[in-house]
ATPase, P-type (Transporting), HAD superfamily, subfamily IC (Ferrithrix thermotolerans DSM 19514), 269 residues
Amino acid sequence: MVAIDSFAFYSHSQVSIVILVALLVCLIPTTIGALLSAIGIAGMDRLVQRNVLAMSGRAVEVAGDVQTLLLDKTGMITQGNRMASAFYPLGEVTEQELAEAAQLASLADETPEGRSIVVLAKERFNIRERDLGSRYNFVPFTARTRMSGIDLDCRMVRKGATDAVKNWVLSLGGTVSEELDEISDRLAREGRTPLAVSDGDRLLGVVELKDTIKQGIREKFEELRALGIRTVMITGDNPLTAAAIASEAGVDDFMAEATSEAKMALILK
């Protein structure tokens, strides 16, 4: 506006107030568009300062209508570094026998959990990595089987979720003892993650995995609750472990034994 008035004075012309007001009205829509973009960028910048990545200004705008927050347990609520801390053999199985099988099933497992099992077996019984020769096949973990392990000569060693390993053993004609459920349930109620270990149709025992809740996470959830935002924890752990961690963290609800498909279905819901 000042520039137009200056040009008019330089050219010895006059610009009426009506023209200036009309020009202002015409410029308002473009100004609003620029302001919205600037506001969106400013919002994204403020989120980045709080370690939150927004993909667009629209995402910042929509975030104001969020009523439910879905959180993956590992890394979001817990530290995400579950470590093997103990071996619990079943029946007449020795702790060393269980440790050897768990270590063998973890040799190709590059996750922190798998590496920690190898380390714990070495620390407790000096069990080191071995030469497997050429007649072996590593079995990777999948969300469908919830197990991993190795096929070596005539042996099929597996470790994984308790119910998954139980079903595997039963499918091979083996039997399942009540002691397995007792140990698994006890660890789960304490917020630990039990991993069952089997060698063929024989259950050997349970490996205990420990994780820790992030400091101050409960207070953060209370702040979200005060804003009217409901928090839901999603985890692949069994219901007892999930319930214990959810209670300690202070989330409003949880989904246990969640597969990738179940997680996506919950998000779309």
About this structure: Residues 1-49 form one domain. The beta strands are 68-72, 83-89, 136-139, 147-152, 155-160, 193-199, 202-210, 230-234, 253-255. The chain has a mean pLDDT of 84.
